[in-house]
Amino acid sequence: MQKGENIVSIALAAIVFFAVIAIQRKWKPASLKEVASSAEDFILTTAGIRGEAPDIAGYERLKTFRLGVYHAGLYRATPAPLIFASGRLVVYDREDHPVFSLETLEGSKEPWTALYDFAGRRGLSVVGSRAHPDYARDLTGDGNPDIIIGRYSGGDHCCTVATLVSLGPNAVTSIGRIDGLDGLPFEGLEVRKVNKDAAWECVAHRPYVTNCGTHADAADVISVYTLADGRYTDQTARFGDYLQEVLRQNSAKWRQEKNRSLGLLQTLATDYAAVGQRDQGKRFFALNLSQFMPSLRKQNVDPNACLESLESLVDRVPALGP
Question: Quick one: which of 168, 66, 151 has its CA closest to 113?
Answer without folding.
Answer: 151
